[in-house]
């Protein structure tokens, strides 16, 4: 299906492909020669998709081309070589004012943040390495379906940096403080079986079954009414934020009333 609002040139510069089939969008990181390493243009392309995607799209699948999901940052970001036509890599941020530097990193984060919006269900289909920014991209999604060869690693601290693409909050929510701290500080590899055991993965399947497993999950999440799914995801996000029981009960009541009003409106139209 054509997507006229999407800037194809912007996606190409970011090494990102977008395919839409009815209510499903599939985003593919498409730089297999460098294991889908990411650059600022990648994050700009992801942000653009989030801003322009049709509201009728209910499910977004994020995947990598080739044998890896994403090996993290493009190595040129650390060497000062030109990246996306601009010199300096990460070091270029230091030439900015504090306000500009903060805004620059916020613009990078925006490429990931929209995947957590309850307006859509988001699914990471992970094969091979998901390192650093790749791990954080998978963490931005609601669900993670892993091939048996998948490996997660939060590599930033080992490189003298910190995870800054929104991955720390979902990681702590999924596995708890102690495990999250150990994984980030040691930068160790977490294989698929452990990911399933500690709650990072929803399922683990053979590599040749990854696409089929994701297709089945997409079909399952499309069965309920769109409004019910959106409201439920928002409720779960509210609960995960640590609100007190009374607040959560009030949020549930309000959501249910909106659903009942929606049913009433549909009945009136029929």
TrEMBL record:
It comes from the Bacteria. It holds the Pfam family ECH_1. Keywords: Lipid metabolism, Lyase. The keyword Lyase applies. The keyword Transmembrane helix does not apply. Belongs to the enoyl-CoA hydratase/isomerase family. This is Enoyl-CoA hydratase/isomerase family protein.
